Amino acid sequence: MSANGKPSSYYGQPVIKEPVWTPEIPIYFFTGGLAGASAGLAQLAELRGNDELARRAWAAALAGVAASPLLLISDLGKPARFLNMLRMFKVTSPMSVGSWILSASGATTAVAAMRAWTGLFPRTGRAAGGAAAALGLPLSTYTAALIANTAVPVWHEARSTLPLVFASGAAASAGAVAVAATPERDAAPARRLALGAAVAELATVELMERRLGKLGEPYRQGAAGRLSKLGKALTLAGAAVVAARAGRSRAAAVTGGALLAAGGLAERFGIFRAGFQSAADPAYVVGPQRERLAGGEARGAARRHASASPA
Amino acid sequence: MKLETSAWPDSYGADAKPRVGFFTDTSVCIGCKACEVACKEWNRIPDSPKGFTGNSYDNTVDLGANTWRHVAFVEKRVPVDADGGASLVEAAERGGLVEEAGVNTYQEGDGLRWLMSSDVCKHCTHAACLEVCPTGALFRTEFGTVVVQEDVCNGCGYCVPACPFGVLDRREDDGRVWKCTLCYDRLKDDQEPACAQACPTNSIQFGELAELRARAEGRLAQLTAAGQADARLYLADSDDGIGGGGAFFLLLDDPEVYGLPPDPVDTTRDLGSIWAAAGAAALALGAGLAAAVLGGRG
């Protein structure tokens, strides 16, 4: 500890590296979640006999899984080597697991969406729909596991709640897009989904920040804080419009859906930026480690005395 | 002492070599930066000008894609008296310097302690970079070290924030991630790494890890006996958060003073709970979707 109560540091320099990921990544968090939850929504709407909603949700899912690989490939340092992502399957790497989930989601969603819109391949399409809906669930949450599985303090320490934030955000986006794209009389399930998920998203973000305690600060400061505030405001406004008028007015459905989706996107950018901010400040990296040592939860990596075990 | 990693030596069978590493004894580092230069020369690393930092003699700044050895310079004002935690001999020596040579430039009654330390990739026993790498570009060599295969890396960047020491980074004009290889090419020719060979004070010691750890215990005992109460070994034990380092250190102050984390953890230690949380959230999403679609009218 230095005199001002902040943990000591080496000229204030970062201890860990900030991620090198570009803004394509938080956009992918959004498109991947939209695709995953939309596939589930579409499949369930089909079961319910609501084909109007199902077709539009399949289209949203297809748009999401089509955009996602392009975003991810463009983020790579060596885009031409994107196929190396499928060189192996590694359960210790959420990015490896996610690459396989996304690949399978893309293939099954494309077939299911084709059947929903053209009627081609009815049997294969139905099987693909079930698979796409099932794969959509982990597709929506593995990205939270991916960023939690780093040394970035505000992501790693939020590992128990971050997947819930991503799940509710995915559901809200899927509901929002379906509300905007579906005729009002067929969109009641989408409205329920959008509203319920918006409430869940606001609640889980709040829960995550509270459980982080002092480490929740980067989520409220600087660019991350502004993005998070914007996200919450857009989500609230969108939810209000959807609740009040989206059942009767096409314009309100489109506006409310767009606001909700934009809110989800801003929230993901906020979470993304907060990670960079916490990585850049050695106090957020060293502080929690010092607390673990002071609380006796860990022995730490330094030892002053002779080893107890024979060397 | 447990030196085994998840892939070494088992996956190499009869081809496994003894696990090697670095013991960096910072108590004899003189800050000459020969290690930085030798590393750059041997590995043909691009230059990495960072300008003039004003941070003592450190204009290298940090480890990264183009810096695989980094000498840190810590200037610390310490009280010049016998109560300052130093030995009587040291205190007298410093007191003498203050009076005769005017070393005491900061303020009356203070001296300056200058710590130098050559940092490097830790070649962790539980290496987060290697665990999270989706392509298998990062691998465990037959020497138990951690190396990036430059012909496989696609620059996904996952290892960069996964490393608890901030060692890896992406090379901007190249797109791939680069880091210390512990001179894998030299090891295969029975040569020691360039930095260790260049070090004039033997602050950087290369060798078989088991032997280095035993040697470090001896050095710690020697310094402690000589009154250097601040001496400590860093990453020398298999029960820390990374299972011990293939490269480990003798430090003279808290790790964070050198820019090192005091309790680094391999993030994949928590991966079970991370996957469980993601799985539970996926199920909750399924339940939420079902409730919204099937649970109401219309």
What does this 3D model show about the protein?
- The complex is a heterodimer of chains A (311) and B (298).
- Chain A has 311 residues and is mainly α.
- Chain A has helices at residues 24-47, 51-75, 94-118, 122-148, 153-156, 162-181, 188-212, 217-220, 222-245, 250-280, 282-294; one strand spanning 302-303.
- The longest helix of chain A is centred in the last third of the chain and has 31 residues, at 250-280.
- With 298 residues, chain B is α+β, with helices and mostly antiparallel strands.
- Chain B is built from 8 helices and 10 strands.
- Chain B has a 4-stranded mixed β-sheet with strand order 8-1-10-9.
- The longest helix of chain B has 24 residues, at 271-294.
Lay out the secondary structure.
The complex is a heterodimer of chains A (311) and B (298).
Chain A: H1 24-47, H2 51-75, H3 94-118, H4 122-148, H5 153-156, H6 162-181, H7 188-212, H8 217-220, H9 222-245, H10 250-280, H11 282-294, E1 302-303
Chain B: E1 20-25, H1 34-43, E2 69-79, H2 88-101, E3 110-120, H3 128-132, E4 138-140, E5 146-148, H4 159-162, E6 169-170, E7 177-178, H5 184-188, H6 194-198, E8 204-208, H7 209-225, E9 232-234, E10 247-251, H8 271-294
Parallel strand pairs in B: 1-10
Antiparallel strand pairs in B: 1-8, 2-3, 4-5, 6-7, 9-10
* Strands side by side in the biggest sheet of chain B: 8-1-10-9
Strand proportion of chain A, as a percent range, falls in under 5%
Q: What's the end-to-end separation of chain A, in Å?
A: 31 Å
Enter the CATH topology name of the largest domain in chain B: Alpha-Beta Plaits
User: Percent of residues of chain B in helical segments?
Assistant: 25-40%
CATH class of chain A: Mainly Alpha
First and last CA, distance of chain B: 66 Å
